[in-house]
Amino acid sequence: MNIVRYPTDKLASLLRDQKVATMPQLKTALGTDVTYTVLRKLAPLSYRSSYSHGGTYDTLDSIAQYDGLGLWSYGDIHFSRRGTLINTAEALVTQSEAGYQVPELEAVVHVAAKDALRQLVQAGRLFRQPWEGRYLYCAVDRTRRQEQWAARQAQLAAGDELQAAKALFYSLLDEQQRRLYAGLESLQCGYGGQRRTALRLGLDVDTVARGERELLSGQVLRERVRQKGGGRPSVEKKRPQS
User: Fold this and answer.
1) pLDDT digit string (tens) for 79-121?
2) Where along the chain do its domains lie?
3) Rounded distance, CA 147 to CA 120, Å?
4) pTM over 0.85, yes/no
5) Burial label, 38 (beta-carbon count in 10 A; 0-12, 13-18, 19+)
6) Among the residues of the chain, which ranges form H helices?
7) How far apart are the C-alpha atoms of 160 and 153, rounded to whole Å?
8) Contact 171/157 with Cβ under 8 angstroms?
9) What is the pLDDT of residue 206?
10) Is residue 189 classed as helix, strand or coil in its secondary structure?
11) Confidence of residue 124 (pLDDT cuts 50, 70, 90)
């Protein structure tokens, strides 16, 4: 029985010559009509599918010249170290200094990103909140999100030294200090201050209200950020029974 062998170097040679290739082109180079055979031969080559054009183009990581964000474009074909647009959008937003609005992210990835961001929010992988008439997409981690919100505030207040200083100061505070600072700002605003302060600082209204209560009652924890017993429960080690 004759065994048909498909040399992997044919795929590598094609991709080195063309930089990118479609599945039909790869099949022709390998001499097969079976998609699985091509994918099996591509696997040890560390290949990457495009996040644009419906993932119809492939390249090799050794060919792609990724930039600091892990992106590479060959003409109008776009690739990412993270693979899919969903994973790419999540990583870019989470690692960004001040979050992204849809047009800002699309200017980076060069493809429509609104649907990907919506899916990430629905899946709980990103967080969004209103900002200047649009949604601002931020990290799902609360502390990271507040840092991004503060950075966005600083950008807006770049022409106002006092507001810029406030934004910088807020970004340096821990969880309790941010809550107390928000409570103080809200009290100074008067009626409607809780909602305005929550929106400006990217906090929940309940968090601002709690900051107000702690300030007015003087019940402030001086040596810890959370109350005793707060945070994640400790994990008890389980030992095998003898």
Assistant:
1) 999 999 999 999 999 999 999 999 999 999 999 999 999 999 9
2) 9-80
3) 20
4) no
5) buried
6) 9-18, 23-30, 35-42, 85-95, 102-109, 114-122, 142-156, 161-171, 175-189, 193-201, 205-217
7) 11
8) no
9) 85
10) helix
11) very high
> How large is the C-alpha radius of gyration of the chain?
25
Q: Are 139 and 128 in contact (CB under 8 A)?
A: no
Lowest mean pLDDT among 119-128, 146-155, 192-201, 219-228: 219-228
Q: Give the pair of three-digit tokens for residue 217.
A: 């009652």
Q: CA 174 from chain center: how many Å?
A: 22
d(CA 50, CA 204): 39
Contacts of 128 (CB under 8 A, 6+ apart): 117, 121, 135, 136, 137, 138
Measured over all CA atoms, what is the biggest interatomic distance in the chain, rounded to whole angstroms? 87
| Helix H or strand E segment including 73 | strand 71-74
* Length of the chain in terms of residues written: 242
Residue indicated by tokens 């302060």: 197
Beta carbons of 38 and 11 less than 8 angstroms apart: yes
Amino acid sitting at position 235: V
| 143 and 225 Cβ atoms separated by less than 8 Å | no
Please, are residues 138 and 127 in contact by the beta-carbon 8 Å criterion? yes
- Nearest Cα residue to 142 out of 133, 129, 155: 129
* Rounded alpha-carbon distances, angstroms, from residue 111 to 116, 188, 207: 10, 44, 37
Q: From CA 165, how far away is CA 157, in angstroms rounded?
A: 9
